[in-house]
Design goal:
single chain; about 200 residues; mainly alpha; Arc Repressor Mutant, subunit A; two-stranded antiparallel sheet
Length: about 200
């Protein structure tokens, strides 16, 4: 994923300031690719130097001037070129799966606590998908007039929902399995303790 091309895609809908682009990022692209405000400003400057953007300065009474970025014809050509490139397969990276793979080398209670935290994050994420993002898509489609594009925005939302639900299903199954292991281990410790007490009493 290329941050410049993501910004070109957003600016292809309408001109915006760097701050406005960050706000749009947070409510949309952020869910599958994040960028900080300094990264966005730095990238916009590079894109302007490449001729992909033009900038207009809007003066405001009593407030700092606004730099509004506009996509150029060169920028549109670059966006289309990138969109039509063969897709690069992503490199899988998931820190939770690495911890799971080596989970037997961790304290069981600590691993379960981390897994519960991961589950809570995805519960919160699913709520955001279901309550916040659909209204944002509808509002942005009306604001930009990109009603046909909204179909594709909803496809990314559907992917997010399905993936998050899959993670939650896996978390529930993993926690159920690990809690059973913890219960069995607990019973074994009790049995060992009971056997030890019996041996001592016989002496």
């Amino acid at each position: 994923m290329s941050l410049p091309h993501a910004l070109l895609g957003l600016l292809n809908y309408r001109p915006a300031t760097g701050y406005e682009l960050k706000g749009t990022f947070t409510k949309s692209i952020h869910f599958f690719w994040n960028a900080t405000l300094p990264q966005i400003y730095r990238t916009l400057k590079q894109m302007e130097g490449s001729g992909w953007l033009s900038v207009t300065v809007e003066h405001q009474d009593g407030r700092p001037s606004r730099k509004v970025y506009h996509i150029t014809d060169t920028g549109r050509k670059e966006l289309k070129r990138w969109l039509n490139e063969p897709l690069e397969l992503p490199e899988p990276r998931n820190a939770m799966m690495i911890r799971t793979f080596f989970g037997n080398q961790m304290n069981l209670d600590q691993f379960i606590a981390q897994l519960q935290k991961w589950r809570e994050y995805h519960v919160s994420l699913l709520k955001r998908y279901e309550k916040e993002i659909t209204p944002v898509i509808d509002r942005y489609a009306k604001m930009t007039g990109a009603f046909k594009d909204a179909r594709y925005w909803n496809l990314t939302l559907d992917f997010g929902r399905r993936y998050t639900k899959m993670v939650l299903d896996w978390c529930e199954a993993a926690l159920s399995s690990l809690n059973q292991t913890r219960q069995v281990s607990g019973r074994r410790l009790l049995q060992k303790g009971s056997s030890f007490q019996q041996k001592r009493s016989r002496r």
